[in-house]
Amino acid sequence: MPAAKADGRHLLRRAAGVAVAVALGLGSGSSALATQPTPPSDQAIQDAKAAENLAAQSVASLEVELARLSTVNDQATISVQSAAETYLAASEKLAAAQAQASASEASAASARADLETARHEVTAIALQAYRSGGSMGVLEAVLSADGYQDVVARTAAYQQFGAKADAAVQRFNASRIVADTLTRRAQVAAEASQAAAAEADSALQAAQQAQTDAAQQVAAADARRTELIAVLATRHNTTAALEKQRQDAADAEKRRRAEAAAQAARAATPPAHTATPSAPASTPKPTAPPVTTAPPPSTGSTPTPPPSTPPTGSDPSVLGTGTSRGSAAQGQAAADWAQTQTGLPYLLGGAGPDGYDCSGLTSKAWSTQGISIIHSSRSQYTQVLKISVQELRPGDLVFWATDPANPETIYHVAMWIGSDQIVEATVPGAMSRVTSMRWSGTMPYAGRA
Predict the structure, then answer these.
(1) pTM for this one?
(2) Measuring CA to CA, which residue among 141, 161, 166 is closest to residue 151?
(3) Percentage of the chain modeled with pLDDT above 90
(4) Cβ proximity of 364 and 356 under 8 Å
């Protein structure tokens, strides 16, 4: 075959191949351009929305749980302080019962001594009568009485002794009655003291258990909070450190709002119309303290007896009730002394020098000024003069309660030192300290010793 003809056929074959390739390419391109993406089904859209809502609900539930956990520490602190206050009340009752039992026993012992004196007097008269010629029957009438309990019944025999003997018998009889009565009273007082001791012991155990339970609750809450923050960080696509920062800020804002509301409520309390007995007329009254953002804590002479009926915390008539014996200068000195006791450990029932509980610190501070107040926050509130918060001056006392309308629920007391600060002993494991005033949960009125 001629070379030219062979080359022509080769060119035709190449052209045919190119044409086929082009045709195939065009066909393929046309097919790709013609195919459109399939839109998602309604079910797929619903499933996506449900997943999104579930994720949002999950995040919301986590944040609700975190908000709840932020109050666990506060609640644990209050439970410990309430249990401690119950123990102090029981201890106060025990001390009163022991004092009553001691006094009753002393009175009974004195009466028994008087009875013994009367007995010797009657016996001496009987012996004298016998030696003077009286009959043995007369002496037997005196000596045969079993413990002299029925000696008075033998009046016929004593008629021989005359007026002196009759007076001695009457003294003996009166002494016996008094001795028997006071002995029974002493027994009742001793039983009451034993019951009060058992109550105080039970309250102490409850306070110690509350401390253990609170520590466990706080530890568990802290661990759970850490877990939830890690989950939130994953959901929000952030870091645990940033998420913790966000949660801490949210908690702080929540406390700030609560503090602002509580302070506004306390500032609205009108000043007392009853003048403070010991306050100089020229003493200026400070304005209501400013709002703070501080969180709650992690936590010689015979006292003046409290009124028989405790005042109701929310009753305006409570203003001016109670007793104040300290001056403004004494209050400042008490506040200054209390500040020297910071850094000491909390001790249940402690009144120094190694540690204090809340009312132990306040009572000891005032005792340095010669003013005695009872070692119990509830009793202190009942005892001191009620004042409005606008009248606070250094040395005054502020109180917290689970129900601010009910003094029976008071669980903490601190001393106002001025400039919106207090000095306090809070809970086991914490040191006495100076800190910013907290208004949430306070009684409507402060107190002046």
Answers:
(1) 0.63
(2) 141
(3) 29
(4) yes
